[in-house]
């Protein structure tokens, strides 16, 4: 069995999201991330760091692959809306940290 519960807890602690409310999906239905939506820019280094850590986590969590890769497309010019989508993924991970891959 492969799980990364400890890694998820460390991520949440690192980004200060331990007390977030639960969400059902890593990205909301009909959410459309666009290059320029008029929201303010966020720090590229911070955003890239979040994406890098989440990409590592996708090796054991196939349920977040689509969401993380959708957000990874905006690493060169991240906006506030993109950061909000990444934070939703982290909140989803908090409440599904017990999921694991089982190889019989």
Tell me what you see in this structure.
- The chain has helices spanning 5-14, 44-57, 65-72, 80-95.
- The chain has 104 residues and is mainly alpha-helical.
- The protein has one domain.
- The longest helix has 16 residues, at 80-95.
- The chain is globular, with a radius of gyration of 14 Å.
- The termini are close together.
The arrangement of helices and strands along the chain is HHHH
Strand content: under 5%
Q: SS-based structural class? A: mainly alpha
Strand segment tally: 0
Whole-number average pLDDT?
86
User: Major sheet: size, sense and barrel closure?
Assistant: none
Given the C-alpha coordinates, what overall shape results? Answer: globular
End-to-end C-alpha gap = 8 Å
**How many separate structural domains?**
1
Query: Which residues form runs of ≥5 with pLDDT under 50?
Result: none
Helical content stands at: 40-55%
Radius of gyration in whole Å, from Cα?
14 Å
The helix tally amounts to: 4
Question: In short, what is this structure?
Answer:
With 104 residues, the protein is mostly helical.
Question: Could you name the key traits of this structure?
Answer:
4 helices; 104 residues; mainly alpha; globular
List the helices and strands and how they pair.
Elements: H1 5-14, H2 44-57, H3 65-72, H4 80-95
Helix pairs in contact: 1-4, 2-3
